[in-house]
Amino acid sequence: MRLHKVFTIAKRDYIATVRTKAFLFGLVVAPLIFGGGSIAMSLMKTKPDVRDRHVAIVDHSGAIAEPLVAAATTKNERELYDKRTHQQIVPRYVFEVVPPVADSKEQLLALSNRVRHKELVAFLEVGKFALRPTKPSDDNGPALGVAPKTDPDTRVSYYTNASGIDEMRGWLSGPINDGVRLARLAQLGIDIRQNKELLTAAPIEGLSLLERDPKTGAVQEARKRSELEGFFVPFAVAMILAMIVMVGSAPMLQNVTQDKSQRIVETLLGSASPLELMSGKVMGSVGVSITSSFLYVAGGVLAVNTLGIAGMLPLTLIPWFYVYLLADVVMLCAFAAALGACCSTPQDAQNLAVLLLMPCMLPMFMLVNVLRQPNGLFATAMSLVPPFTPILMLLRQATTAGVPIWQPWVGLVGVSIFAFATVWGASRIFRVAILMQGKPPQLAQLVRWAW
Amino acid sequence: MDAVQISHVTRTFGEVTAVDDLSLTVPEGSIYGFIGPNGSGKTTTMRMIVNIFYPDSGEIRLFGDGRPENSSDLIGYLPEERGLYQKMTVQALLEFYGELRSGRSVKTEVAAWLQRLDLSARAADKLETLSKGMSQKVQFIATVIPEPKLLVLDEPFSGLDPVSAEAIRAAILELRRRGVTVILSTHDMSLAETMCDYIFMIFRGKKVLDGTLESIQERYGDDTIRVTAPGGIGNIEHLPGVEQVRDLGQVHELRLARGVDPQDVLRALLAQARVTSFSLAKPSLHDIFLRIARPAAQEVKNAAA
Question: What is the pTM of this model?
Answer without folding.
Answer: 0.72
